[in-house]
Structures are given as C-alpha cells and as structure tokens.
Amino acid sequence: MNLANNTVLITGGASGIGFALAERFVRAGSTVIVCGRRADKLQEAQQKLPGLHTHVCDVGNAAERVALLDWVRNEFPALNVLVNNAGIQNRVQLATDTEEWETRRQEIIINVEAPIHLAMLFIEQLQAQSHPAIINVTSGLAFTPAAFVPIYSATKAALHSFTLSLRHQLNQTPIQVLEIVPPAVNTDLGGPGLHTFGVPVDDFADSVMARLAAGEVEVGYESSETRRLASRAELDAAFEQMNNR
Ligand SMILES: NC(=O)c1ccc[n+]([C@@H]2O[C@H](COP(=O)([O-])OP(=O)(O)OC[C@H]3O[C@@H](n4cnc5c(N)ncnc54)[C@H](OP(=O)(O)O)[C@@H]3O)[C@@H](O)[C@H]2O)c1
Predict the structure, then answer these.
(1) In a domain, 2, yes or no
(2) DSSP summary character for residue 182
(3) Is the Cβ atom of 176 under 6 angstroms away from ligand 1?
(4) Which of 122, 152, 162, 204 is catalytic?
(5) How many angstroms separate the Cα of 7 from the Cα of each of 73, 80, 134?
(6) What is the count of structural domains for the chain?
(7) Residue 136 domain boundaries
(8) Is 129 in contact with 78 (CB distance < 8 Å)?
(9) Within a domain: residue 1?
C-alpha cells in the first residue's frame, strides 16, 4: 500500500502500536484520525503528534461504532483506510476466575466483535474511495496461544481467521485487506510494565510499515514472523516451549 495521501482511522491509536502507526502515516503525508476511550490520552497523542485528529469512541459499544461511521462520513468523507488496532489483554486463570462474565466478555467484544462490525460498517465508505484498505492488528498468539491469556489468544485467532475470509470476499473490490501480526511489543498492553520484555515499538512499526508499503499483505516481526509461517509441528513445539517454561 502507499503510505501517503490517505485518510486513515486508527482505533486505539493514542498509544502503543496504534500511535506508532499513526506517526508513520502522518510522516508519509497521510491524514490520521485516532480514537480511544480516554480523552486525556487522545489529547496527549495530539500534543506529541501535531496535525493528528482525535475522537473519543468506545469500540466496545455497537452504537458508538455506528456513530463513529456517521462522524467520519461528516468530518472526513475521504476516509480510505481503517486500522482495527484497539485491543485489550487480560490474564485469566480459567478454573478459579472470580470475575463477572460481563467483564470477561469485554475482551471478546473489543478484540473480535468490534473489528468485525467496523469492517462490515465501513466497507461501503471505503469502497467509494481510491486505494482503500482495511488493516487488522492480530498477534503472534493467533498462531500459538499463550495459555495465561486464553481469551485474548482465542480472540486473535478469530480475528486472523476473519481477516482471511474478509480478504477473500473483498477480492473483487478495490479494498485491500492487510494484517499486522505483532510479537510481544513493549507497550502498555494489559497494564503498564507487563510488556517491557517486548521488542521496541518503533523498530517493530518501522519494519511492518516498510513491508506494507512494499506490497505485502500479512506481516509479522521476529518471533511472530516465524509463527505465522510455521508448520503445525513447529507451532505445537512453540506452544510447548512457551507454555511449559
Ligand atoms: N504489545 C504487544 O505485545 C502486542 C502483541 C500482539 C498484538 N498486539 C495488539 O496490538 C494492538 C495495540 O495494542 P498495544 O500493544 O499498542 O497496547 P496499548 O498501548 O494498550 O494500546 C491499546 C489501545 O487501544 C485502545 N482501546 C482499548 N479498548 C478500546 C475500546 N473499547 N475502544 C477504543 N479504544 C480502545 C486504548 O485506549 P483507551 O484505553 O483510551 O480506550 C489504547 O490506546 C492490540 O490489538 C493488541 O492486541 C499487541
């Protein structure tokens, strides 16, 4: 894809991976809108990246997704790229968990229901533009689950699966369907300090954006690149290694 001259909406783009993608789209000459639940985080992002547009939206709420499309149609009618990046991650011990199901369900709603619904909602808007694209942010854990984040891993496997079907169904339209498959990246995912073992977000973002710009449709980085290309036997071995160490 061409990184320049787009109008891009990045869900969850005020921090972490979403913000790093926003910086690179802006630098390349695209207009970028980021949305998220926390107005203060959006404001902080705007201060760090002048020219960034922001909008408060909880993609976990179906009515807010519909309202987001209406807002975009009015404010940014040329929007041609949707990046489904917003996500949350919870550590859950399945046999002893005491959380209300409604709380647990949020991970499924935000990580799977929202990107599926947003993709479906935005198809008509995107189709009317030149060089339209939908970019879904999944995870290396879509291919090898981490058992300590069982619901999260399942949501990412589902989003990877959906991305393949979406690409197939849209292959007669101008909409490109792309997938970014991050490994562990040093962001605040799951809470501050829980992903400091991850790769630096800027190195990761530089690599994946360069590869998307070069025309690749599914891109990982380091361990997630290995995982997305692995055989079933290699995935089983990686699962054992990751979960039994
Ligand atoms: N970091 C990693 O190791 C890693 C690995 C694989 C995949 N990923 C994926 O990369 C994506 C970005 O995560 P990150 O690592 O950059 O974590 P992050 O810094 O926590 O960013 C997540 C962003 O999503 C937003 N968000 C969460 N729930 C939302 C909702 N209901 N509505 C709107 N925005 C929402 C958050 O903002 P608010 O809280 O203000 O809403 C935040 O800006 C996620 O899909 C994640 O699963 C990350």
Answers:
(1) no
(2) -
(3) no
(4) 152
(5) 12, 6, 12
(6) 1
(7) 7-243
(8) yes
(9) no
Dihedral angle sign, alpha carbons of residues 27, 188, 208, 120: negative
- Asked if 182 and 219 count as a contact pair (C-beta separation under 8 A), the reply is no
Q: Which helix (H) or strand (E) holds 218?
A: strand 218-220
pLDDT in tens, 151-162: 999 999 999 999
Nearest to 36 by CA among 71, 76, 85: 85
Q: Is 152 part of the annotated catalytic residue set? A: yes
Q: Is residue 101 part of a domain?
A: yes
Task: Find out whether 210 and 170 touch, Cβ atoms under 8 Å.
Answer: no
Buried b (16+ CB within 10 A) or exposed e, 183-221: bbbbbebeeeeebeeebebeebbebbbebbeeeeebbbb
CA distance 161 to 25: 26
Q: What is the pLDDT of residue 162?
A: 99
Q: Distance (Å, rounded) from C-alpha 184 to C-alpha 198?
A: 4
Q: So what's the pLDDT on residue 245?
A: 74
DSSP 47-96: HHSTT-EEEE--TTSHHHHHHHHHHHHHH-TT--EEEE---------TTT
CATH number for the domain that contains residue 99 = 3.40.50.720
Q: Where are the alpha helices (DSSP H) in 76-199?
A: 101-108, 114-127, 150-169
Ligand 1 contact, 187 CB (< 6 A): yes
Position 29 in a domain: yes
- Measured in whole angstroms, the distance separating CA 35 from the mean position of its chain's CA atoms is 12
Ligand 1 atom with least separation from CA of 37: 41
CB 240 within 8 A of CB 56: no
pLDDT under 50: residue ranges of the chain? none
